[in-house]
Design goal:
Number of strands: 0
Largest sheet: none
Shape: globular
Strand content: under 5%
Helix content: 55-70%
Structural class: mainly alpha
Length: 91
Amino acid sequence: RFDHLLDSVADLDTTGIEAVATLFAAWNDLLLAGNLAGRDEVIREVLENWHPAKAEKFTAPGLDRWLGWMHRHQIVPQGRGPRTTIGRLFP
């Protein structure tokens, strides 16, 4: 699975990588919380509940295109692992 992920994102620029990583994390967090995780909910989570810079950098239509890309490349979270928290990776 990791090799598949690396192969899939190999040609993306930093903005694409950021979009995919953010969407994946937001989507996974919604699943972990037991929430519906349709496209609209995932996009709303990124634009309204993540760092304000995400809403400045990304648009709903742009994120929707990236979600489509994720589906086509089978990069879909399963609702596993810890929930995303600010500062967890960089204490």
